[in-house]
Every structure is written in structure tokens, then in C-alpha cells.
Amino acid sequence: MSKFNISLVSADRAKAMLTEYKEQRKNSVPQLTAPGRYILPDYKMTRRRAAFKIVKHTFLTPHYKSYVALDSDNGHTLWMRNFGSLTEALFWLETGLKISDTDSHSNYKEWSDKHTADIATFKDLLRQRPKAKQKKIGKKAVKKPNK
Predict the structure, then answer these.
(1) How far is CA 52 from CA 46, 48, 109, in A?
(2) Contact, 63 vs 33, CB < 8 A?
(3) CB of 56 closer than 8 Å to CB of 2
(4) Are 4 and 122 in contact (CB under 8 A)?
(5) Buried b / exposed e across 59-97, counting CB within 10 Å, b at 16+?
(6) Residue 7 to residue 142: CA distance in whole angstroms
(7) Rounded to whole angstroms, how far apart are CA atoms 73 and 70?
């Protein structure tokens, strides 16, 4: 098991966390039921503005080899970001820094070199999880009547 305090989450659970956060935004001090740090693999977060660009809607859409990092460790706010790499998502969840950010204590390259074994075990954990069944959407051939 890796040293990271990060869990893999399913798409249904991530959507439930997102709707719970949206419902509690009106509260002065929201309390999320499952605080923590999570990664949703093979999905990306998309936002669309509607109602004359006033209301912003957030969706989770399937996207191969893309990761959504969910951080609600404080129990009040849900932070979400898209990543193209599992290592980048782990770096953001662990340090709170973006890849381009530099901190006096660490940067992305030093951090990834230091945690190579933990990243490898997390990738193995990701490979071991059961694959979701994907629906094949195809067009059926329509026979034309003979004249």
C-alpha cells in the first residue's frame, strides 16, 4: 500500500460528492459527509455556462487516460481539477501546488523522484481495479427495400 492518503473513487460516488457540494453551497458552514482526497480515473470535468452565462454547470464526462482529482480534506469545500497524468494528480493532492509552481521546499521533479515507489504502487492499485463495462454504440445497417 502506498503512503499517500488518497483513495480511488467511482464515477457514481464522485457525482454524488459533486451534487452534495452544490446543495450545501448555500449553507454558511457546509459539512461534507465524506471529506478526503480522491482520484477519479478515466473521467474529466467539464464546465458549461448557461442561462445567459450566469450559472455555471459542472459535469463529469468519460475521457480515457484522464484523471479528476477531488480534494475535500477540510470537510467544507470540494476542490476539483483535471489532470492528464496520475503523477500530476497525486502531486497536486499531496502538495497543493501546480506543476509549474515552485516552492522553496520542493518542486514537481524532485517530488516525483522522491516518491517513485509510492507512485508505482498507486499505479498498480489502479490497474487492479475492475474495469467498468463500456457500452458499444454502433449504427445498425438499414436494409433498403429492393425495387
Answers:
(1) 18, 11, 42
(2) no
(3) no
(4) yes
(5) ebeebeebbbbbbbbeeeebebeebeebbbbbbbbbeeb
(6) 46
(7) 9
All cell numbers assigned to 49: 455556462
Cell of 122: 498507486
User: Using one digit for the tens of pLDDT, what is the confidence trace for 68-100?
Assistant: 999 988 888 888 899 999 999 999 898 888 887
Would the pTM count as exceeding 0.90? no
List of residues 6+ apart from 36 with CB closer than 8 A? 5, 7, 72, 73
Q: Are 60 and 45 in contact (CB under 8 A)?
A: yes
Spans of the chain, pLDDT less than 50:
1, 134-139
- All three cell numbers of 16, joined, read 454524488
